[in-house]
């Protein structure tokens, strides 16, 4: 193990969820390649206190634990379902509870899911600027997946798998020493 921690957060409440499946898939590939320890969460894991919290201190213990994991991670995978061209409001509210300095210079893989190609630019027009405000390092390759890229809530598209391989490879700019001696299957 490299000692580095990866945290994935899917901005979805639904279970099963294609967004959570995508975040888990990317996290697994990155963890295998670099030896990261990893955890993935969705808004269901954050719990009900999120909606009523005006400040981070208003979150219950479960939600505070997830936020603490996010800010202490060495690398993040952010995934959002696309609703009406953007991310869900509660997902944005979760991010709003994080101080911008806590994500400064953190490498972030941005991903999103949607019903079709019409929402593909959500990663560039919504997620990248959001994390740019935090002065985080969103990796150059963003990953968008539509319904046709999944079979039974699992990544099934070769094109999507190749794109995930590209962005996972981009992490080597931040973690070159974390690469295990044996290259993982990509």
UniProtKB/TrEMBL annotation:
GO terms for molecular function: oxidoreductase activity. PANTHER family: FMN REDUCTASE (NADPH). The gene is msuE. This is FMN reductase. Belongs to the SsuE family. Keywords: Flavoprotein, FMN, Oxidoreductase. Residues 5-148 form the NADPH-dependent FMN reductase-like domain.
């Amino acid at each position: 193990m490299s000692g580095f921690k990866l945290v994935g957060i899917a901005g979805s409440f639904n279970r099963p969820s294609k967004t959570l499946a995508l975040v888990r898939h990317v996290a697994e590939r990155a963890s295998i390649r670099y030896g990261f320890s990893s955890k993935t969460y969705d808004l269901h894991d954050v719990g009900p206190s999120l909606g009523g919290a005006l400040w981070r201190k208003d979150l219950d213990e479960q939600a505070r634990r997830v936020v603490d994991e996010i800010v202490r991670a060495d690398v993040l995978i952010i995934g959002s379902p696309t609703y009406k061209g953007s991310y869900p409001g509660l997902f944005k509210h979760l991010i709003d509870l994080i101080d911008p300095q806590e994500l400064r210079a953190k490498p972030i893989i941005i991903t999103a899911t949607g019903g079709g190609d019409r929402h593909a630019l959500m990663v560039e027009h919504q997620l990248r600027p959001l994390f740019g405000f935090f002065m985080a390092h969103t990796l150059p390759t963003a990953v968008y997946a539509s319904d046709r890229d999944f079979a039974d809530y699992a990544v099934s598209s070769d094109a999507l798998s190749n794109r995930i391989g590209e962005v996972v490879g981009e992490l080597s700019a931040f973690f070159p020493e974390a690469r295990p001696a044996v290259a993982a299957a990509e």
